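Morning!

This is the sequence you dropped in the shared folder:
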Amino acid sequence: MTAALDPITLEVITEQLIAVVREMRATMIRTAYSMTIYEMKDFSCSLFDSAKRLVAQSEDLPAHVLPLPWSVEAIMQDFAKDINPGDVFLMNDAYRGGTHLNDVTMLYPIYDGDTLVLLAANRSHWDDVGGMTPGSMSGNATEVLQEGVRSPLRQHACARGAAGRLPCHARNVPGSGAAGARAMASLRPRYGNEVYRA
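The structure's back. Tokens below.
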């Protein structure tokens, strides 16, 4: 199939991608350890194509989704030459597309064989990322490092057990990306990878 799509097929694919994002959201809620996620729904999910363009989101928080492309761009710049199937990237840097340090961005590359097809991303509120006070936010902070850890982090291949090294309340985060990958695996045979890169 070529990249030129008729309007009906384009709309069908768009709705399928939104359904994938909704499945990612449902996975986050069902597997969350933190009530900030499963009760307050303080997180957002989205899909990006391999060119780092936002292709799908669902009913999420605009404060999360709007700056998310800058975080995806920053992660892809930092690790462009070393992205592999099963990798999970975490970032909370407020100066590179983040919001505040408690909102951590997860990027999960979705591959078909050796081809990067999509990037599943979510941004979720972690209750504590270090800092000078519990909960990481203090009115007395005079610099960002007093609010907690600020860093792009990388966890290698969840299949090799990296998810077990994440903080307890974050172990559902890669599961959201894996849910997106499973859903995409069922859609790709119908239209091919080219359509999702178009």
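Headline: Residues 158-166 have pLDDT under 50 and may be disordered.

More detail when I'm at my desk.
O.
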